[in-house]
Amino acid sequence: MKLPEQILKVCTPHQFFKHFFFTEELLAKIAEETNLYSSQIYPNKPINCTVYDTQNFLGICIIGSLTPPSNVPDLCIDMLGRELVKETVSKNV
User: How far is residue 38 CA from its own chain's centroid?
Assistant: First the structure.
């Protein structure tokens, strides 16, 4: 079975997901829908979610799923936390 040339050019899992699953268009749509939902639920103080925020959230979900902590704040604790997560969000989540 011969793989398509597009797949053969991909070197890392990150590139594969970015190219085939989490495209810029999909991330933009997720951010847009998040903002719409936020404005409907919190009309006086909606959030402003960007594509960058969406990427960070999905990244944290993926990293957190590799070795799930007992709870979300544990991702930021020095002993248990992962450096990428600690660099992305504050401890006041």
Answer: 18
Kindly report, residue by residue over 19-77, the tens digit of the pLDDT.
778 889 999 999 999 999 999 999 999 999 999 999 888 877 777 776 665 666 666 55
Q: How far apart are CA 93 and CA 49, in angstroms?
A: 16
92 CB contacts (<8 Å, ≥6 apart)? Answer: none
SS3 1: coil
Are 51 and 34 in contact by the 8 Å Cβ rule? The answer is no
Eight-state DSSP code of residue 67: S
Measured over all CA atoms, what is the biggest interatomic distance in the chain, rounded to whole angstroms? 56
Give counts: helices (H), strands (E), the chain.
5, 0
State the pTM of this model.
Answer: 0.66
Dihedral sign for Cα 19, 22, 24, 25, please: positive
